[in-house]
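A further point concerns the way the authors explain their paired sequence and structure data. Nothing conveys this as quickly as seeing an actual entry. An entry of this sort, consisting of the sequence and the corresponding backbone structure tokens, reads as follows:
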Amino acid sequence: WNEATGVLLENMLAEGEKFQIGKVYGEELAVSNTGSIDQYVRVNIYRYWTDADGKKLQELSPDLIDLNLVNIGNGWVTDEQSTTAERTVLYYDRPVAPGAVTLPFSDQLKVENGITAKVTQTTKTEGKYTTITTTYDYDGVRFWLEVEVNAVQTHNAADAIWSAWGRRAMVGADGTLRLN
């Protein structure tokens, strides 16, 4: 994560290094409260594929883009009701003070080797010669990992969460957030 530009993965590769399928890359992501009040935070993580023109490819599996989530149940809560194959929704279970940083919610990124097994073969016979052409389904595509962070005030937090995020939540006397 590059704080200056707000770009994920920007410093993940060493200069001159090419991205390798199946290689595990360190990608520790957390949320920092740069505001002036305590806030509850929600993170939406989107994983998807696009073609060379930027068109999203629904038929290619986002599961092959593996962002390893950490601290689930230990600070971060997964919203199973809102999570889909392409989007993961996380909530931090306590307020984040101004200047504070949450526990990380990820530590590694890998594009699974399984993409190399996704191939289409065509067979063409001309006379006594048969040509079999193998095309990788993921050839020429790009993977995308987008992380969106939203925050709400701690004052009337349950109502603020319902109003801003459309999710029912309870806030305990100690400030701990629980999804309903």
Residues 1-5 have pLDDT under 50 and may be disordered. The radius of gyration is 21 Å. The CA atoms of residues 118 and 137 lie 6 Å apart. The helical segments are 157-165.
